[in-house]
Amino acid sequence: MFNVNPQFAASSSGIGSLGINLKGFIFQLLTFVIVLLILRRWVFPKLVATLEARRKTLEESLVQAKATQEALTKAEERAEQILHKAREQADVSLADAREQAKNLITKAESSAEDQAKRVLKEAEQHLSQQQNRLREELKDELTDLVVLTTEKVLRSKLNPEEDAKLIEQSIKEIS
Amino acid sequence: MANFSRRQLARYAVDQLLAKQAPAEVAKHLAAALSENKMQHQTELLLDDIAEELEDRGLMAKAIITSRSKLPANLLARLADQIQKATGVQKVSVQEQIDEQVIGGFKVETAKRTWDKTIAHHLAEIKGGI
Question: Under a CB-based contact definition with an 8 Å cutoff, are residues B11 and B1 in contact?
Fold first, then answer.
């Protein structure tokens, strides 16, 4: 509010010397006051309400954004945890799989070795049996040959005198 | 006539012979018994049983001696003596048999015992023993 000093109101040396029309000034002032009252009565409340609503909306948006940010952070942390856990589980599974594969390979090797030993042993046994059989056959054939030869020799060489000597010796064995 | 076993008939025959019954008479009785018991085909076996019975009782042994050629008389006599000692019978009846398959030596068979001293037997033992 402009306070007009009365000493300037009536003289041209006062406010008039400044080039201000007092009446006009008062009129404008009243107009201004009226406009101000109108604005205060009808415009400012709506404007303030609108601004307040916008402020609240912004605050809510900020809160929501913050909450969203926090949720996102938590989600990221959780995702990180899940990922970490999954990685650990994957590592464990991989280690288990490697261990199982190693065991399987060891078992397969052991089984193959056992089988090879068994086959070798069977082959040795078979060979030994074959050798024994051949040895027996050879012995039998050799014996047959010796007996046959001896028999032929004795048939041709044993004369009655020698036979009588043999019988004499054998008579003592009758008991 | 009742049923008799071959062994019973053999004992009967020996008993009758020891009782000085005529062998022909004993033979008739045995023939009748064999016929009655339908055992005509067992005549040879009955003779073997009689020989065994005689040997069992220490009366006589019938010895079959098998050799490659005929044995000299002295050897045969020594052999009979040795058989008599071994069987413990009063008398030995020797029957000679020639078989070239024995190669050499001799084989003695009585009703109850056998002594095989042939070269063929020794060779067979060697063949079976090795």
Answer: no
* pLDDT tens-digit profile, chain B (130 residues): 567 888 999 999 999 988 998 989 999 999 999 888 888 888 999 999 999 999 999 999 999 999 999 999 999 999 999 999 999 999 999 999 999 999 999 999 999 999 999 999 988 888 887 5
> Which tens digit of pLDDT belongs to each residue from A80-139?
999 999 999 999 999 999 999 999 999 999 999 999 999 999 999 999 999 999 998 998
Give φ, ψ of A118 to 5 degrees: -60, -45
Closest Cα in chain A, distance from residue B51 (Å): 19
Helices (H), B6-118: 6-18, 23-36, 43-56, 73-87
Name the β-bridge partners of B114: B109
- Is A165 part of any domain? no
For the entire predicted model, the pTM comes to: 0.55
By the CB < 8 Å criterion, does B88 face chain A? no
Q: Which domain holds residue A119?
A: 6-157
CB contact under 8 A, A171 and B79: yes
What burial class does residue B11 get, using C-beta atoms within 10 Å of its C-beta: 0-12 exposed, 13-18 middle, 19+ buried?
middle
- Nearest Cα of chain B lies from the Cα of A128 at a distance, in angstroms, of 20
**How many domains is chain A built from?**
1
ipTM above 0.85, yes or no: no
Query: Which residues in chain B are contacts of A174 at CB distance < 8 A?
Result: 79, 82-83, 86, 108, 115, 117
| Structural domain includes residue A35 | yes
Distance of residue B110 Cα from the nearest chain A Cα, in angstroms: 12
